[in-house]
User: Fold Probable anion transporter 6, chloroplastic from Prunus mume.
Amino acid sequence: MAKLTLRAESSCLFSPTTSSQSQPSSFVSSFRRRRLLCFPPKHNLEFRVFCSIKEKESIKEAKRVNGVPVDEVQRAGSDSEGDSGLESGSGEVGFDWDWPPWKNIPLRYKLIGTTSLAFVICNMDKVNLSIAIIPMSHQLGWSSSEAGLVQSSFFWGYALSQLPGGWLAKIFGGRKVLEIGVLTWSLATALVPLVAGFTPGLVVSRILVGIGEGVSPSAATDLIARSIPLEERSRAVAFVFGGLSVGSVAGLLLAPPLIQNLGWESVFYIFSLLGIGWYVGFQFLEGQASWVGESIPRSQSTDMKKTWSTKEFGDSLKDVPWKEFFRNQAVWAMIYAHFCGSWGHYTCLAWLPTYFSEELNLNLTEAAWVSILPPLASIFVTSIASQFADNLISSGVQTTTVRKICQTIAFLSPAACMTLSSLDLGLPHWEVVGILTGGLALSSFALSGLYCTHQDMSPEYASILLGITNTVGAVPGIIGVALTGYLLDSTHSWSISLFIPSIFFYLTGTVIWLVFASSKPQTFSKTD
Assistant:
């Protein structure tokens, strides 16, 4: 840290002094014998530049006089000089320049912003294959069934990592689990072009991507549950998970030009570098003293630094009230709602670019641009939904009622729009695109419905509860994406293969949610 302090001891700007030592020996001595004008007394001009943690600590120790910080000694001296300065004209001038600019941002906002950025990269690495699968299928000679199998392999790893991710987040803290997850999926993404010609290797690489991304929702849920108060929770969840929509937009925007100019392999290499860059930057932030120990509650940060034995791991796993979870009707409502919402989301995420390309006769770039519209509209809807939910809760509406309203909108809206799209009404292509965009965008109300309920019910077990529901929610990615490709080969009908199954699950999910869902806090006490 470098610090520069200029002190003015006169009310005259660079006026020569009347001192007998009028012969200047150097610029510095001349400067010291000149006096400054038009600046208020008792201020310091300070420029601080933080170079490294080690240097910062060294300077902090060096700037002490008999155990008292020099700044305090200077302030004491300035105060005493200031009293006489009213008569003698002595004083100090300056301002304090803080760097970096986000230094004074509350730590919980830094945490939420960094986590949201990770989710942006997360969905970029998820949607890249939905665009690259078109040229890959042509080059490697894949059928729709084979393409569906390749795309669904991501969800195998995604499903397998949900419960372990929630459990590890509870033990080590969501922050540590998140950074390991980002590094894992980024490295695995870079492997895809290297093994694309060997189907088993390609499947394994996508499973690894799924494992890395699978731990992220539970890690983020743990962070939000422990760090964000109830009245800010809807906005925090919307901001973090809204990064997925931003990532979809960014991925769909960047993938087509990269593929056309550099080949489909470039998408995986470049996107993986973004994740690795995030990981490196996160280590820098983690190394700052102000970040460590404040962004996570003390009890959690202590757990992160503790060395765990095998027995302690086992005891920790046994301490989770698994039976109480599955005896709770509200938990089952979350599980089924998550499954239903994921069926529509994952099948559309994987197959909409192909649907727009084949059904609407669009080329690769046009299909990608049209596919951007639903996640782009979701960003707008998410901001409205989160503010709507938090305002209702702040005004006294029961949390359960708010969550039911939001989730009902999230289910019925896409169901209605898919019904219109699946019927042969003779609508022009742009109207079909607009209808699907509106329905899928309104499904983002789930971020203020289902995705907040885990934290509402139990902040302590929120990450594990999301791990449970997200495990089941990943099944449509495995079954639904592959089944869509199989049905498309068999029936050649997008209505039967893509829309009708989603409509069924949206409607049944609405009924189950309205009847059994609850956001009342649960203790989940273990019973013998």
